[in-house]
């Protein structure tokens, strides 16, 4: 059985639209792969990282789909999730893999990719309202640069080796407009975001069947 068949088998009967689950499955794969695979593309490389936002009205069950993907990633051993709310400076520091969490910023593993997954059912809560500096930085980092230097942490630069970011978030149309204001339209962020919109399925499951933790074993083995 291939990955997507196994993923939808694990999802089972759900109130979330199938398109949400499909793109959550893709995000799960791209997050796990990171920089391990790329396609040669002229003078550069194409990596599988994705910036995905699930759009829909409140109650469209965006979080339901997101939580399934997060659970699979967590069970597979992935730990590089961004905080639900953070400053740009703290976000960049959190990207850097450290030898020991108790050591300072000078104790870094510089040959390890700095991977992180932004996974938040309310993207506006993560990015903030009209945070142009943060949006521009994410736009810049979508290209999987070899290195990135951020100079705004207490007057000292933060050096990020091979930054790799995946985004899987949720938003209402109004929330998207608050997170990405009109002045951001010319910065390139919308050319990097994959916006997946769906109306609610109107499917109501009053008492969902309990899913045993072992039910995800097959899909975790595939990732």
Which features would summarize this protein structure in a list?
223 residues; alpha/beta; two-stranded antiparallel sheet; 9 helices
Shape: globular
Strand order of the largest sheet: 4-7-3-8
- Class computed from helices, strands and strand pairing: alpha/beta
Number of beta strands: 8
Estimate the helix proportion, in percent. 25-40%
Q: In DSSP terms, counting alpha (H) and pi (I) runs of 4 or more, how many helices?
A: 9
Strand content: 15-25%
| Pattern of helices and strands | HHEEEHHEHHEEEHHEH
Taking the alpha carbons of the first and last residues, their distance comes to 13 Å
The low-pLDDT segments are: 103-109
Largest sheet: 4 strands, parallel
Mean pLDDT over the full residue set = 87
Radius of gyration: 18 Å
Structure, described:
- With 223 residues, the protein is of the alpha/beta class.
- 35% of the residues lie in helices and 20% in strands.
- The strands form three sheets. Strands 4-7-3-8 form a four-stranded parallel β-sheet. A two-stranded antiparallel sheet has the order 1-2.
- Strand 5 and strand 6 form a beta hairpin.
- The longest helix has 16 residues, at 18-33.
- The chain is globular.
- Residues 103-109 have low confidence and may be disordered.
């Amino acid at each position: 059985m291939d990955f997507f068949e196994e993923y939808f088998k694990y999802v089972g009967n759900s109130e979330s639209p199938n398109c949400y689950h499909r793109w959550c499955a893709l995000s799960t794969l791209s997050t796990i792969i990171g920089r391990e695979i790329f396609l040669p593309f002229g003078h550069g490389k194409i990596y599988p990282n994705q910036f995905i936002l699930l759009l829909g009205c409140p109650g469209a069950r965006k979080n339901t789909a997101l939580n399934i993907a997060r659970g699979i990633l967590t069970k597979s051993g992935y730990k590089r999730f961004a905080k639900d709310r953070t400053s740009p400076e703290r976000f960049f520091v959190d990207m850097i893999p450290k030898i020991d969490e108790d050591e300072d910023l000078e104790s870094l593993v510089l040959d390890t990719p700095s991977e992180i997954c932004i996974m938040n059912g309310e993207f506006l809560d993560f990015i903030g309202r009209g945070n142009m500096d943060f949006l521009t930085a994410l736009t810049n980092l979508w290209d999987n640069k070899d290195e990135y230097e951020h100079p705004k942490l207490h007057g000292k630069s933060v050096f990020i080796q091979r930054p790799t970011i995946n985004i899987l978030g949720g938003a209402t149309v109004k929330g998207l407009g608050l997170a990405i204001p009109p002045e951001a339209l010319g910065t390139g962020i919308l050319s990097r975001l994959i916006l997946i919109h769906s109306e609610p399925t109107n499917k109501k499951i009053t008492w969902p069947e309990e899913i045993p933790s072992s039910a995800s074993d097959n899909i975790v083995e595939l990732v």
